[in-house]
Amino acid sequence: MKSALPLSGIRVLDFSHILAGPFCTRLLADFGADVVKVETRTRQDRMGAIKPGERLKGRSDRPPAYLTTNRNKRSITINLKTDEGKNLALKLAGQADVVVENFSAGVMDRLKLGYEHLKAVNPRIIYVAMSGYGHDGPRKDWTSMNMNLQAYTGLMMATGAEGDPPTAISNSWNDYIGGLHACFGILQAFSEREATGVGVNLDLSQFECSVATFGALLLSSAVNGVPPPRLGSRSTHWAPQGVYRCAGQDDWCAISVQKTDQWRALIKAMGNPSWAAKTEYETLVGRLKHHDEIDAGIERWSRTLQASEAERGLKAAGVPAERMRRIPEVLEDKNGESVFRPMNDPRDQDRLVTGLPFKFSRSPVAQLSPAPGLGEHTREVLRDWLGIDDREIKRLEEQGTLE
């Protein structure tokens, strides 16, 4: 007997857009939830919109990043500026297990679709608000974007090296971290609802999610009363550690020596150079103190080797080392089957997308279905969730409710 998907039978009404909310609901969809994305033709989700003048192969109705972030979902278009549109959304929420939104604080309340409004029609609803700074407190009305959050959380001063200008993580760190926190918050809320019979209002602050990942950096500042140093690729716990230039153009190898026996193995792999024989290098304290000169010695050696050659030799010697790869190399890895899955879409070119980074021993995960076209499932969802017939759907279309 085939096992059901982990969230089979769970209905998610998704009002979110851009990345944080859609990433959360994509995880729920990958677990098997029926995720219905509420959109409107007048304000489409332009997640990952292509640059002006850029032409890409494949679907032109949706930006490329949208296609993976919103896979396994259905799309319904509702004009929430109309009373009947708001009423229809309220009815859908009455049939949902979860509602997710990442608008600025107060937007859903103004639409009369906030938690208190939805709880009145569905006491079991799990309502997830994913604003930048939460729905209360002095920051609730601040505009939230990934760059702003990286600056305000202090993240930009935890990356880079001393003397560098503030350095952002180019990937949308706060959106992914916020989406992950929201997902496990929802899973916990399911457990609580099972015990109490009622839903919850989950007010998530992406700012707080990001700060919560700093861990030891926060502890260091609290204990020492000063900001922790910006280490670049180095560590306070082991040495040498860094990214070392190799032969070829812009090729590098990352090395992290965590134990004295690994340091000795590194020396041997480098051919026992005389510069590495200093007794002060035998201790971690000594290696940390003399990191600059050790780095210089390692790079004199690494520059004579291709990155793959340095990686192979160091691994064989028991030294933690990896050559620096670029994104296309990660995609082309012959062992990438466990990381990437093919996305089949008759309207698109073949794509590889990331799956869930784990496997269940019994339950499967959802088969990949392509991201929906705008409003592609409007009629289907209204029939499935609300039992509305085609005549009523046509009337709603004609009066502009479904647009």
Structure, explained:
This protein is α/β, with parallel strands linked by helices and 403 residues long. The protein folds into two domains: 11-213 and 335-398, Rossmann fold (3-Layer(aba) Sandwich); 241-245 and 252-323, formyl-coa transferase, domain 3 (2-Layer Sandwich), CATH 3.30.1540.10. It is 37% helix and 13% strand. The chain has 16 helices and eleven strands. It has a six-stranded parallel beta sheet with strand order 3-2-1-4-5-6, sandwiched between helices. A three-stranded antiparallel beta sheet has the order 7-8-9, covered by helices on one side. The chain has a two-stranded antiparallel sheet with strand order 10-11. Strand 7 and strand 8 form a beta hairpin. Helix 1 (20-30) crosses helix 7 (173-196). The two termini are 42 Å apart.
What secondary-structure arrangement, pairings included, does this model have?
Layout: E1 11-14, H1 20-30, E2 34-39, H2 64-69, E3 73-77, H3 83-94, E4 98-101, H4 107-110, H5 115-121, E5 126-131, H6 146-152, H7 173-196, E6 200-205, H8 206-211, H9 216-224, E7 241-245, E8 252-256, H10 260-269, H11 284-289, H12 291-302, H13 307-317, E9 321-323, H14 327-332, E10 340-343, E11 351-354, H15 378-386, H16 390-398
Parallel strand pairs: 1-2, 1-4, 2-3, 4-5, 5-6
Antiparallel strand pairs: 7-8, 8-9, 10-11
Query: What's the number of domains?
Result: 2
H/E topology pattern: EHEHEHEHHEHHEHHEEHHHHEHEEHH
Total number of β-strand segments? 11
How can the largest sheet be summarized? 6 strands, parallel
Named CATH architecture of the largest domain: 3-Layer(aba) Sandwich
Count the helices. How many?
16
Distance between the termini: 42 Å
- Order of strands, main sheet, comes to 3-2-1-4-5-6
How large is the share of residues in beta strands? 5-15%
Q: How does the helix and strand content classify structurally?
A: alpha/beta
- Find the CATH topology of the largest domain: Rossmann fold
How much helix, percentage-wise, in residues? 25-40%
Low-confidence stretches: none
Global outline: elongated
Computed CA radius of gyration, to the nearest angstrom = 26 Å
